[in-house]
Amino acid sequence: MKQGATSGILFGIALAGFWDGITLHSILQWHHMISNRVPPTSMTAMQLNMLADGLFDAFCWIVTVAALLVLFRDAKRGVLPRGKVYFGWLLIGAGLFNFVEGVIDHEILGIHHVRPGANWLAWDIGFLVLLGIVPAGIGWLLTRDQRRMVTQQFRAA
């Protein structure tokens, strides 16, 4: 895999997941991980939804740790990614995560929709396009030319 791709993609996945969990689950409370299957209409149902949200957050945390480990490994080897190309890998990771999670959770499994209600499909499609395809496409454009990648060599003091 190209330099910086693994940690960039992993950080992108984690950041997209954290944004979803914090913004859509907690702040806006538009949905929870299993709110289509277990509508949060009672305290018990809400507790199950919060548990599912917490497991989703734990997944994001584990991916963050994995991204850090890969980045530290690269630093130990003396090469750290920088610049637009690395940001592109972040966008690819975030966009792919949102697209895959959206298709699987929203459409195939139907465990939740972005914003339940009369126009749920429009919200789901908007999510797939604006937070999935667009960032991944911009990221791909930023990573196309690897000559933009600037690396730093770290020498032991």
Description:
The chain is mostly helical. 68% of the residues lie in helices and 5% in strands. The chain is built from four helices and two strands. The protein has helices at 5-27, 43-76, 83-108, 120-143, and strands at residues 79-82, 150-153. A two-stranded antiparallel sheet has the order 1-2. Helix 1 runs antiparallel to helix 2 (43-76), helix 1 crosses helix 3 (83-108) and helix 3 runs antiparallel to helix 4. It is flat.
For the structure shown, list the relevant keywords.
single chain, 157 residues, mainly alpha, two-stranded antiparallel sheet, 4 helices, flat, disordered C terminus
Number of helices: 4
The general outline is flat
What value does the average pLDDT take? 91
Note the run of SSEs as H and E. Answer: HHEHHE
Distance between the termini: 29 Å
Walk across the major sheet and give the strand order: 1-2
Low-pLDDT segments: 147-157
**SS elements, strand count:** 2
Query: What is the beta-strand fraction?
Result: 5-15%
Radius of gyration: 18 Å
Instruction: Kindly name the structural category.
Output: mainly alpha
How would you sum up the major sheet? 2 strands, antiparallel
**Helix residue percentage:** 55-70%
